[in-house]
Automatic annotation (TrEMBL):
Naturally occurring in which organism (per UniProt): Methanolobus halotolerans
InterPro entries: Ta0600-like_sf, UPF0147
Stated family: Belongs to the UPF0147 family.
Name of the featured protein: UPF0147 protein CUN85_05610
Entries under NCBIfam families matching the protein: PRK04330.1
Gene3D superfamilies: Ta0600-like
Lineage: Archaea, Methanobacteriati, Methanobacteriota, Stenosarchaea group, Methanomicrobia
Length: 88
């Protein structure tokens, strides 16, 4: 699972960048923080944390007000999270 731990850490770094970027609309930053909190919950199974995170990321990536560079980062994070198998 250490490989997946590395994936989660990379995703958290990108989400922290989004959450702290003042050029990103507040609702998008709030959602990035929500996903960060979800990924940090060690008491929930990894597949639950990743699937709920992917769902939120897909929702915010469709926001018409999201800057292009942020949308690309969101898609990158979602893609990385999708590499984590459901049976972990």
């Amino acid at each position: 699972m250490s490989d997946y731990g590395q994936v989660i850490e990379e995703c958290k770094q990108k989400l922290e960048y989004i959450a702290n970027d003042n050029s990103v609309p507040r609702n998008i930053r709030r959602s990035a923080n929500e996903v960060l909190e979800t990924l940090r919950k060690k008491d929930e199974p990894l597949f639950l944390r990743t699937s709920s995170s992917i769902s939120v990321l897909e929702d915010i990536s469709n926001d018409p007000n999201i800057p292009v560079h942020t949308r690309t980062l969101i898609w990158d994070v979602a893609s990385q999270l999708e590499t984590i198998p459901v049976d972990e």
